[in-house]
Amino acid sequence: MRELNTRYFFVTDGCDFDGFYYDTIEDIHLDEIPKYERWYYYPTSKH
Fold it and tell me: What is the mean pLDDT of residues 32-47?
């Protein structure tokens, strides 16, 4: 994620889909994929 200069990371195994947000300290698991308009903002929940 650092090399690509991105904060969002999505993974799938074909059945399950997970999204993560990197806030320079830790990866935050996203409960849902935010709308594109909200990608600038930090997510509100951490897991």
Answer: 67
Using DSSP's 3-state secondary structure scheme, residue 46 falls into coil
Sorting pLDDT into bands at 50, 70 and 90, what band is 24? confident
Integer angstrom CA distances of residue 43 from 9, 13, 29: 13, 24, 9
User: Cα torsion for 46, 35, 32, 45, to the nearest 10°?
Assistant: 20
7: which 2 tokens?
């904060």
Q: Which pLDDT does position 45 carry in this prediction?
A: 53
What is the dihedral sign for C-alpha 37, 19, 25, 46? positive
CA atoms within 13 A on the CB side of 16: 3
